[in-house]
Amino acid sequence: MRTRLSICRKKARFASEAEALEVVFAADYPLRPYRCDRCDKFHLTSRTKGKRVPRDLVSTSPA
Q1: Superkingdom of the source (predicted)?
Q2: How many helices, marked H, and strands, marked E, lie in the chain?
Q3: 39: buried, middle or exposed (CB in 10 Å: 19+, 13-18, 0-12)?
Q4: Using an 8 Å Cβ cutoff, are 36 and 43 in contact?
Q5: Which domain holds residue 43?
Q6: Which residues contact 20 (CB under 8 A, 6 or more apart)?
Q7: CA atoms of 25 and 7, how far apart (whole Å)
Q8: Which residues pair with 42 in a beta bridge?
Q9: What does the DSSP 8-state code read for residue 50?
Q10: Residue 10 placed within a domain
């Protein structure tokens, strides 16, 4: 699914996935980084339905 340009403009942009993951690990709720097909940067989303959660995110999440 393609990101709408209006959504891309509103979201924070991260130059690398590592930079986005720093925010993911600091957040109090589940987030997932993704590469935007509009700006080619990384954004964060809380939508995880139907998405595979990386193993290192599962093992570091609090019980």
Answers
A1: Bacteria
A2: 3, 2
A3: middle
A4: yes
A5: 5-48
A6: 14, 33, 42, 43, 44
A7: 23
A8: 14, 35
A9: T
A10: yes
What's the one-letter identity of residue 6?
S
Q: Per-residue pLDDT tens for 28-38? A: 989 999 999 99
- The enclosing H or E element of 57 equals helix 55-60
Phi, psi (5° rounding) for residue 61? -75, 145
What amino acid occupies position 19?
E
Domain count, the chain: 1
**Would 38 be classed as within a structural domain?**
yes
Kindly indicate the confidence band of residue 54, based on its pLDDT and cuts at 50, 70 and 90.
low
The amino acid at residue 34 is Y
Which pair of structure tokens corresponds to residue 56? 């290192």
